[in-house]
Amino acid sequence: MITIYKAKDYQEMSRRAANIIFAQVTLKPDCVLGLATGSTPVGAYRQLVEWYEKGELDFSGVTSVNLDEYKGLSGDNDQSYRYFMNRNLFDHINIDKSRTFVPDGLEGDSEKACAEYNQIIRSVGGIDLQLLGIGGNGHIGFNEPAEAFEPETHCVDLTESTIQANARFFERIEDVPKQAYTMGIKNIMSAKKILLIATGENKAEALYQSLYGKITPKVPASILQLHKDVTVVADEAALSRIIKERGELV
Ligand code: F6R
Question: Residue 168 Cα, ligand 1 centroid: separation in angstroms?
Fold first, then answer.
């Protein structure tokens, strides 16, 4: 089941998303959070840090597993997703860093890296709440549009559009990694709850196709229609196509 919340702008989307994560950590202090990188969750992470600093949140029992990591980048490379998570969240809260997991970008053997990550997800007991952003092409994690859904952690060749979209984080287009390790669709769908966040007009079509279109690996996020507990928090611009087709959300 999918519940959609409309936020008026990025700030409200971030606060509402952070609220849901706040509730999860408060209700189950030893929960497992599935986390995402990218520009969409930055505001929610900032809000969580603020609440932590005010003494309203305690992450000491929390475990986290991130969706993905570029293959070939080390955790101290400032473009890696491990670095992003440290800088935007982990460095500012009292989470035990040894309980924060990101695929090992430096493991050159893809099969080994992916098997290890699947094992980590199993060993932490599965994900309580998985936070997701969405690509303009409907990707989740780095599960790009494809002929079939990939169930577990795998190594992907990034599409040209994703490489272009990520280029803003790198000095030169040649520096953008061409491959990544990502959780698969089964890993994501096994999470007890999913929180999908989206902002901006450029997500409107992908969001509409994902939530109301055909369920197909060509729009990876469309699989979320089959999950029993999905919350979408999106701003008006990201919801514009849905509102146009289906009317105002209540
Ligand atoms: C990041 C991830 C990606 C992003 C997506 C949206 O860990 O898994 O699927 O969520 O590319 O990125 P932004 O938020 O930068 O628009």
Answer: 13
Q: Which of 89, 134, 150, 163 to mutate to test the pocket of ligand 1 (most atoms within 8 A of CB)?
A: 134
Q: Which residues pair with 34 in a beta bridge?
A: 65, 130
Calculate how far, in angstroms, residue 38's C-alpha sits from the geometric centre of ligand 1.
4
Task: Compute how many other C-beta atoms are within 10 angstroms of the C-beta atom of residue 184.
Answer: 21
As a residue count, the chain comes to 250
Residues identified as active-site: 68, 137, 139, 144
What percent of the chain lies above the pLDDT cut of 90? 89
pLDDT tens digits, residue range 138-149? Answer: 999 999 999 999
d(CA 97, CA 114): 21
Q: Which ligand 1 atom lies nearest to the CA of residue 199?
A: 16
List C-alpha distances in Å: 17 to 88, 130, 141, 185, 230. Answer: 15, 11, 18, 22, 12
User: Is the dihedral angle over the CA atoms 22, 222, 204, 103 positive or is it negative?
Assistant: positive
Ligand 1 site, residue 138, Cβ cutoff 6 A: no
Cα separation, 240 vs 42, in Å, equals 22
Q: What is the pLDDT of residues 66-85, one digit of tens each?
A: 999 999 899 999 889 999 99
pLDDT surpasses 70 at 250: no
Q: What is the pTM of this model?
A: 0.96
Long-range contacts of 80-83, Cβ-Cβ distance < 8 Å, separation of 24 or more:
80/105, 81/37, 81/105
Q: pLDDT tens, 200-214?
A: 999 999 999 999 999
Q: Is 220 in the pocket of ligand 1 (CB under 6 A)?
A: no
Average per-residue pLDDT in the chain?
96
